[in-house]
Known about the structure:
This protein is α/β, with parallel strands linked by helices. It has helices at 17-26, 49-58, 67-70, 88-92, 95-108, 126-136, 156-165, and strands spanning 6-11, 31-34, 62-65, 85-87, 113-117, 143-147, 153-155, 182-184. The protein is 35% helix and 18% strand.
Amino acid sequence: MNKSTKLWTIGHSNHPTDRFLALLQQHGIETVVDVRSQPYSRFSPHFRQSRLRDLLSEIGIGYLFLGDELGGRPKEPELYDDAGNVLYDRVARTRRFANGLRRLMATAATQQVAAMCSEEDPTRCHRRLLITQALLNDDAPPTVMHIRGDSQLVSESEMETHELTAGPQLALFDEDSSAPVRHRR
């Protein structure tokens, strides 16, 4: 990866269509990379894959689906613990995930890309807990910027600093720091 590569992330949340598209345009996003395992929304039909692709195309923004490779709800049962939590450390070691990261970053090397999932808050979403963390472990990590619903742009380094100074947060690891990251199915 090129050190100057940037990656944006965004959660579609329950934004109305015009608000979501305005957030993308405001930050100069050229391609949305959909990292949802299941590219639809029960409550916001405009975020179903085919409709979203059409809406983005209408305003000149590309769409790339990488949910099979980078989604937070993999199909393989061995990537879950007995309680049904996704084991992100195992997901991050799969060939499929590595290939998805390569495709994501190859696109980000030539365009302004936003990795999109459903959660507005990146601290609760696999786009940060899995994808961003894997990218930051690379020898030349990209600069990651999170587009928030209020249109603010928050860098990953600012999020990390805030977590360190904000006091207790939900831990990614158990007390012994060796337990894998988990996320409910």
